[in-house]
Amino acid sequence: MKTANDALIALQAHGKTLATAESCTGGMVGEWLTAIPGSSKSYLGGVISYTNGVKNALLGVPADVLEQFGAVSEQTAQAMAQGAIRAIGADIGASVTGLAGPDGDGSGKPVGLVFTAISGNGKTVCKEHHFSGDRAQIRAAAAEALLTEIIEFLGEIKQ
């Protein structure tokens, strides 16, 4: 929870609003943020885009990106973060997509592979992660990573 609180403090300090697009975390980032009183000043909302159809229809992830690279990819994570900004109208979009297990998705990508992306102020950054543990541990690690990266991203932009 400390990371969620720190992310909200950073958003408020920079006068920015946040929207999230979550897949493998199933809304965990949004849950952690909204558990903090006053979070609505900076956190506008999120989309839980668990299927490719939702990624495409609500976030505008191009079908050819999903087909060529898959739901668990740098390209999809970046498009999700950008789509969150468009869909919700926030300054910053943050996304997470990955394989939490216990089974893979048939693509040959390993369980624990997660991509996070942050978009805003004219730039988008994406990180690849390899988490271990059970499904709950992977999901929590992915959510924690995304919140940490939001703080880092805000630290790199000018107010």
Please state the structural category: alpha/beta
Radius of gyration: 14 Å
Question: What's the architecture in CATH terms?
Answer: Alpha-Beta Complex
* SS summary, helix count: 6
CATH superfamily: CinA-like
The helical percent reads: 40-55%
Q: Give the number of DSSP strands.
A: 5
* Residue runs with pLDDT of under 50 for 5 or more positions: none
Just give the CATH class: Alpha Beta
Mean pLDDT: 96
Major β-sheet annotation: 5 strands, mixed
Number of domains: 1
What is the secondary structure topology, with strand pairs?
Layout: H1 2-14, E1 18-22, H2 28-34, E2 43-48, H3 52-59, H4 63-69, H5 74-88, E3 92-98, E4 113-120, E5 123-130, H6 135-156
Parallel strand pairs: 1-2, 1-3
Antiparallel strand pairs: 3-4, 4-5
Helix pairs in contact: 1-6
Q: How would you portray this structure in words?
A:
The chain is an alpha/beta fold and 159 residues long. It has one domain (2-156): Maf protein (Alpha-Beta Complex). Helices cover 45% and strands 21% of the residues. It has six helices and five strands; from the N terminus they run αβαβαααβββα. The chain has helices at 2-14, 28-34, 52-59, 63-69, 74-88, 135-156, and strands at 18-22, 43-48, 92-98, 113-120, 123-130. The protein has a five-stranded mixed sheet, sandwiched between helices. A hairpin with a 2-residue loop joins strand 4 (113-120) and strand 5. The radius of gyration is 14 Å and the shape is globular. The model has no long low-confidence stretch (mean pLDDT 96).
Q: What labels would you give this structure?
A:
159 residues, alpha/beta, Maf protein, 6 helices, 5 strands
